[in-house]
Amino acid sequence: MGGLVQGAALGAAFELLCTSVLEASQNVVRFSSDLARLESTLCSIELAIDDVENFNKILDAPKHETETLTERLLEGEKLIRKCSKVKWNVFKRLYYSKKLRKLEALLLNYFQINVAAFHFRESKRMSVALNNVNEKLTELATIVNNRGENGVGSSNVFPKLEDGESADEISPP
User: How far is CA 67 from CA 63, 71, 72, 113, 156, in A?
Assistant: First the structure.
């Protein structure tokens, strides 16, 4: 199982759990309300899962950020398979019903807390990166403008705006 968890992509694990829930909800009447609630939760987070996986590919993000969620999804799929095997044992039905509710709560908790924290961290990281870019552009503009004022270079690439003048009114040199 360790190798499967390590190598499984988030989207593949999510798809596996969704498929299991859909099949079980059609075939296992004993957990219908729990499975319906879990199916609704999965439908709610499906787009977020797709986005996380796509952004991780684009940004070449480390896999450890989503490993916990991938593990939970694979554990959920195993739980659904176990639920499918429960016949009329009332104690097992109660036990697995509680486990299904716990799985749903874990998924909701992950998206309410972990994703919010991740979003906050990433927005702060982007703000820092934008500030760095702004500083570099300001430095570059100063260097280029100083060269133009000292007679080095052909013209002032970044002309200063006069009062009341907008950047749209300036034609390129």
Answer: 6, 6, 9, 16, 52
Question: Given 3-state DSSP classes, what are the helix, strand and coil percentages for the chain, each rounded to the nearest 5?
Answer: 80, 0, 20
| Residue carrying the six token digits 């986005």 | 51
Inter-helix orientation angle 10-27/64-85, to 10°: 20
Residue 31 has pLDDT above 70, yes or no: yes
Using CA atoms, how far apart are residues 110 and 102, in angstroms rounded to an integer? 12
92: how many CB neighbours lie within 10 A of its CB?
Answer: 15
Percent of the chain scoring above 90 in pLDDT: 43
Q: How many angstroms separate the CA atoms of 13 and 17, rounded?
A: 6
Q: Whole-angstrom Cα distance, residue 10 to residue 69?
A: 7
Q: What is the pTM of this model?
A: 0.67
Contacts of 124 (CB under 8 A, 6+ apart): none
At 71-92, the pLDDT tens digits run 999 999 999 999 989 888 899 9
